[in-house]
Amino acid sequence: MQERHHVVVVGGGFGGLQLVNDLKGAPVKVTLIDRRNHHLFQPLLYQVATTVLATSEIAWPIRRLYRDRQEVTTVLGEVAGVDTIAKEVTLAHGQSVPYDTLVLATGATHAYFGHDEWAAVAPGLKTLEDATTIRRRVLIAFEQAEVEEDPARRDALLTFTIIGAGPTGVELAGIIAEMAHRTLPGEFRRIDTRLARVVLVEAGPRILPAFSEELSAYASRELEKLGVEVLTGTPVTDCTDEGVTIGESFVPSRTLVWAAGVQASPAARWLGADADRAGRVKVGPDLTAPHRPDIFVIGDTASVIQEDGKPVPGIAPAAKQQGAYVAQVIRGRLTGSPAPGPFRYRHQGSLATIGKRAAIIDFGRIKLRGSLAWWIWGIAHIYFLIGTRSRFAVAWSWLWTYLSGQHSARLITQKDTLREER
Amino acid sequence: MQERHHVVVVGGGFGGLQLVNDLKGAPVKVTLIDRRNHHLFQPLLYQVATTVLATSEIAWPIRRLYRDRQEVTTVLGEVAGVDTIAKEVTLAHGQSVPYDTLVLATGATHAYFGHDEWAAVAPGLKTLEDATTIRRRVLIAFEQAEVEEDPARRDALLTFTIIGAGPTGVELAGIIAEMAHRTLPGEFRRIDTRLARVVLVEAGPRILPAFSEELSAYASRELEKLGVEVLTGTPVTDCTDEGVTIGESFVPSRTLVWAAGVQASPAARWLGADADRAGRVKVGPDLTAPHRPDIFVIGDTASVIQEDGKPVPGIAPAAKQQGAYVAQVIRGRLTGSPAPGPFRYRHQGSLATIGKRAAIIDFGRIKLRGSLAWWIWGIAHIYFLIGTRSRFAVAWSWLWTYLSGQHSARLITQKDTLREER
């Protein structure tokens, strides 16, 4: 009996899971490698960072998802390298996994534009640990302010700066402002949390550049209503544990969050392939790596320029579409059916929330804003979660937050290596 | 206007919260100091360690609980010392808090009977971090076993040892066994998780010594049905990251959990007071520290011998009763009403669960076991949680686990300082 064609997938994010899902019934065996044991619903990670959701509400053990697919093997491991001649993936714990077809869907991390020293003071938001780090720092800042005698230091503790005004930055700024102005007042005896400053800094000319100018302007106004100071057109030039320098001016701020740049995973290095400035592998129109028809690269770690010259954005729906496309290509190759045309990204719309009552949706022709958009946003996100358990749990947490104004997960956990506190 | 009598409470556990709750309306101002920002429902902590519940389901921000009691101030801080002459508490961040009456309710941590080096390999279960540490180690052991080539090492990875067979040890062993034998099978491709060994070691002659012999024997049988090996009458003599030595014999086991001894917090040292072997302050019949009528010590950090010579057990209901009693004493002193008699502990019964279908309840005269006891146990614990949000969330998680056999929170988070894995 001939051994089944072996597809090795590295990365259990949106692209990788869609691919494995769509390979169901194909004449393949699949090995799915991830360095984490869970798939993470990154679009809601900011809600863990801001105490609305619990970690387990937006993460699922990957192994569980493919329990009933006997041809799928899940491996917890970190890739050390790819041998494209021997056709095998080497894992850091020593195991070698041979492949017939390899799909790299390893995502991206945050980039500090050559200032890696900012990472310690301005954490990004990509993993559950990032989220609990930000949550801890935000909560501790209020606690430290409560016992701080010096007014200048107290003000710096009550100033929260978000760097980068894409959806994540906007969503973080909105919820932190709501927390300071609506959730926490009354709980402290010496500080007035309503005096907290939330500063959203964007180097570009406007926030949420993926949206229309009109929606972007609306989002700015809504953020300002929540008490967020929106600063556009000025880059951040320095970050320290005392504050942030925006252009020439220093803003004392003890809590910084980085929501600006991303840097692809080292997939390009593993392959010795050409990469763009963000480290993404420049793939062909069928998403294969250059000169490697047996290796696909998808999601945030691929740079895809479509026929019309437009790049594919680094967002979850794009990764999913790429996963589905590659499954179709692999299936076609094995069954001899004609190959699909080049990958084409279908934009389904952009969504972002501003606090807990407003959102904006840009479907191209149809644009929505306000509370109707917020409900659509909420329902869409619950729909995209995996499984009944999470859908109920998230719906319950949101309903609770909506009705009570309280957040469910206001926990300071783990020690901080940066600041061993007071 | 005379300044109100100032009660300073250190520790927001069961005893501290009961005290503050019961001081409502008394002519006092209260400062509640805790080094954590949350109250933790410790009796369910083992369910976080075993992936059934999420961290935020059993923890509440203390500050939130007293938001509407203007006379209560919450301080996040660690006590550095107590000056009993100046009557003030010094915090590690430098703040001094003067008191008229001081209540120390600072709990206990695990004790390794002079073998502190075991702490790194056999974590105890007292904090949320302890729970996520144990959760991570248990989950990673299965993952490592899946990729381990050497059979002896694989067997050691699939052997889980719980040291100490009080309620926590029994509950941990039961759920880990259920996870290995019922939740995980089918998810791994190379190992059979049903072959995992769960070993429960107890130095004393039987498990659950607080229960009747009959219920204790029943619990043993139920554990054995779940696949737990129960070893009584033999002490653990060594713990390493390779395994555990029980009496003279070495059991290769890569995951150890410590549920054996406790050691009181340093309250006795702060006061320079007499302590028992576990470090607990030997308090008088009214729970005051020796020669310090203005200082009360309650809960796990107090050693109380009642008039009939019986010690008060170190469990949540006892701490709550002590908190209520001290509130009554303080109130009486300030209003001139007669002092209550000496503290008397009323035992309301002992509860423990074995896995997800059986429990034992010892009300003294009435003894229950099996699934009825399990339902009573579950309803009682939901009742004791704080607030509608948690009650719903925990009820939902349990219902889900009960119906689906799946656990909600199977996440490996945070790196482990002990084992940087493979």
From TrEMBL, chains A, B:
Enzyme Commission number, as recorded: 1.6.5.9
Residue span(s) of domain FAD/NAD(P)-binding: 6-323
Oxidoreductase keyword on record: yes
Keyword Oxidoreductase among record annotations: yes
Enzyme class: oxidoreductase
Family membership: Belongs to the NADH dehydrogenase family.
InterPro entries: FAD/NAD-bd_sf, FAD/NAD-binding_dom, NDH-2, NDH2-like_C
Catalytic reaction annotation: a quinone + NADH + H(+) = a quinol + NAD(+)
Domain of life: Bacteria
Protein name: NADH:ubiquinone reductase (non-electrogenic)
GO molecular function terms attached to this record: NADH dehydrogenase (quinone) (non-electrogenic) activity
One protein family per Pfam: NDH2_C
Keyword list, A-Z: FAD, Flavoprotein, NAD, Oxidoreductase, Transit peptide, Ubiquinone
Domain External alternative NADH-ubiquinone oxidoreductase-like C-terminal: 347-406
